[in-house]
Amino acid sequence: MTSKVDETLGYEQARDELIEVVRRLEAGGTTLEESLALWERGEELAKVCRRWLEGARARLDAALAGEDGAEDGDREGDGEGADETRSE
Questions:
Q1: What is the pLDDT of residue 72?
Q2: How far apart are CA 5 and CA 41, in angstroms?
Q3: Could you give the 3-state DSSP secondary structure of residue 2?
Q4: DSSP code of 8?
Q5: What mean pLDDT is predicted for residues 59-76?
Q6: 8 Å CB contact between 21 and 41
Q7: How far is CA 2 from the centre of its chain?
């Protein structure tokens, strides 16, 4: 479960801290307990980043769906009116 503090982290903050956690783990020299704590923190930070990215994806999808709907509606309206005019 993610802590309340993590819920207030922005994407860039969480990403930067995650990069630091990975750097420390890769560097080694930590005890098993420290490594486990870093790993757990990294998992929490990765979840924060994932939530931000999923939210951004949903917003983009919604915006694109809105644009597609508007464009389709414009095309259908123009096409129908043009056909009716031609058949008269």
A1: 66
A2: 12
A3: coil
A4: T
A5: 79
A6: yes
A7: 17
- Asked whether the beta carbons of 47 and 2 are under 8 A apart, the reply is yes
Q: What is the H or E stretch that residue 14 is in?
A: helix 11-27
Report yes or no: 21 and 59 within 8 Å, Cβ to Cβ.
no
Residue 3 pLDDT > 80: no
Rg (CA), the chain: 24
For the record, the structure tokens of 77 come out as 């309206």
- Nearest CA to 6 among 49, 58, 60? 49
C-alpha angle 76-78-79 in degrees, rounded to nearest 5: 65
**CA count, 13 A, side-chain hemisphere, 72:** 6
The CB density around residue 7, as the number of other CB atoms within 10 Å, is 9
| Contacts made by residues 71-80, CB under 8 angstroms, sequence distance 24+ | none
The tokens of 55 are what? 């939210």
Q: What's the chain's length in residues?
A: 88
Question: Is the full-model pTM beyond 0.70?
Answer: no
